[in-house]
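Researcher: Here's the sequence for the chain we discussed earlier.
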Amino acid sequence: ETFGVALENVQTTWIIFLFIYSAIASLLPVWLLLQPRDFINSHQLIVGLGLIFLGIFLAQPVVDAPAIRTEIDLSAPPLFPMLFVTIACGAISGFHGLVSSGTTSKQVNKLKDARLIGYGAMLGEGTLAVASTIAAVAGIALVTSCNLPSIGHVADLNWQVYYDSWAHATANKATAFVLGGGALLEQLGLSASLAKTLMAVLIISFAATTLDTATRIQRFIIAEIGTAIKLPLLQNKYIATICAILPAIILTMWSIPDPVTGSMKQSAWVLWPIFGASNQMLAALTFMILTLYFWQRKKPVLPLLIPMLFIMVITFTSLVMNAQSFHAQENFLLLCINLIMLGLIIWMIIEGILIVQKKLKAIK
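Model: Thanks. This is the structure I predict for it:
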């Protein structure tokens, strides 16, 4: 019990420290801290991915996952649209839209570099996706001994043990990437502890690059809201940073009863089920803005219009299905937030249609 309290105190200290760091990083000029940190992290990620693919080449692991899974788990969400929400969160992410407009675009030296940077970043994202998939479906078969969050100690890990049910798969979360990737690194002669540590550093690198960038972007958004509603207080960068940090601290350090299970959870995990749909709603909005911009400038819009319509359908469908699920679970907190998001995406579509009609009338 004493150890548990001490561990909780250490975690709280680190959480507070990381939020202080993210606040400072969001306020400092981008070249002073964010750029050097990104430069270091990029090397960590490149080296980590390189080692994983070298381990794959040497081990040549057999894909443990079945090509088609015949077992049906009624507790699992339907393949459509959840598969496309999951994939799109990496390939067409609303958060990526915020980053590219909030920080990346402000660091581009020449406009012609934007395509190389943007397309290169998505190639890197795809490379990571391939490595993660191989670790999750093949690398875990190389694990001889581990502890899973869902069932505890396992002597020999395989696909069936890890993904035998939706409940176990959701409980294990990213453990497959850590264990499977670590097993692949062990093929290079690294010890098990060092391999798992390197994988942990790799995952933390993703989180570190997100933390300060997200805080900075949130500060920009709050300041822009202050400008739009003519509230000078929100335009102050220090006030905007505090407004960005405080909700995150509450979500991280405040536990509330889960409306479904009744157990105490961090607020952020209670809200997590709506993250995918909300992220993709933002992606659809980004696509709509770009489509309208290109259309008004008389440039080809089909490469933007087609994925925009697809993402809108996927997002709207997932929100409707989530609303039905939350209502059945009597999870009225997420149901209300979900309905607000449905209203926002309908509003967004109406705004887009009105702009098109206005433009067409001006042409006539």
